[in-house]
Amino acid sequence: MAPFKCGPDYIDSQHLARAAGSTVENLDAVMLTQRALEQVFARGCHGRDMALVEGVMGLFDGIEPRRFGGSSYDVAVQLGLPVVAVLNASSCSYTIAALLRGLQSLCQATPLVGAIVNQVASSNHERLIRSALELHTDIPLLGCVPRQSSPLAPSRHLGIATAPEMDENYYETCANLVEQHIDLDALSAIHLTLAPQWQPENTPPATRLCAVARDEAFSFYYQANLRELEERGFALRFFSPLAGETVPEADCIYMGGGYPELHAPRLSAQHDLHQWLRQHSAAGRPLLAECGGMMLLTKGIWDSQGHFHPMAGIFDASCRMTDRRQALGYVRVQEPAALAGLVGHEFHYSVLEDVQKPCAFALEKVTNGKRSQDGFIRDRTVAGYVHFHFGSEPSLLDWLLAEN
Question: Of the residues 6, 45, 144, 291, which is catalytic?
Answer without folding.
Answer: 291
